[in-house]
Amino acid sequence: MIRHIKTEAIDSYWPIVSGLIEPALDEETSILDVYNKLMDEMMSLLSISIHGEIVAACVCEFVDYPRISALRVVAVGGDKMKEWLPDLIDALDEWAEDSKIDRIEQMGRDGWMKVLKGYGYRKRYTFMTKELSYG
After folding, report:
1. Which of 62, 74, 44 has the alpha carbon at shortest distance from 103?
2. CA atoms lying within 13 Å on the CB side of residue 66
3. What is the pLDDT of residues 41-94, one digit of tens each?
4. Which of 115, 44, 29 is nearest to 17 (CA)?
């Protein structure tokens, strides 16, 4: 079961979902950053349950580009992915359609492409960075 967690309920879910989300974050985003953006309603939290037990969580944000709008998956983490991923994909598709969003996007490791390809996702960009240290 996919559940959108309202802002006022985040604190009660946080002890469980933060441990699922944190391993999926990159070095630019901390779990505290995610929490603060959730509380400021700049991001949204989805919990994923199987038989009443939360086994995964997903954090998303809406992004407005000059010509399109997107629902960006910021982080997904948890266990038993084969059991819940189709439901999460359906929930994100429905949410994007209801919100009149032009694109669902996700940045992540290349392993995600293998998983998402069967759901109609394609590799659009590759993000590369060079760390600089001046002074």
Report:
1. 62
2. 0
3. 999 999 999 999 999 999 999 999 999 999 999 999 999 999 999 999 999 999
4. 44
The pLDDT tens digits of the residues spanning 68-77 come to: 999 999 999 9
- Total-model pTM: 0.89
* Per-residue tokens: 10: 């985040």
Q: Which of 24, 43, 27 is nearest to 35 (CA)?
A: 43
Contacts of 59 (CB under 8 A, 6+ apart): 21, 34, 38, 43, 44, 45, 46, 73, 74, 75, 76
Amino acid at site 81:
M
Cβ atoms within 10 Å, residue 51:
7
Which residue in 45, 37, 52, 72 sits closest to 1, CA to CA? 52
65 closest CA partner among 121, 122, 105 = 105
Question: Contact at 8 Å (CB) between 77 and 57?
Answer: yes
Length in residues, the chain: 135
The token duo for 92 is 């994100």
* Torsion 97-103-108-111 (CA) sign: positive
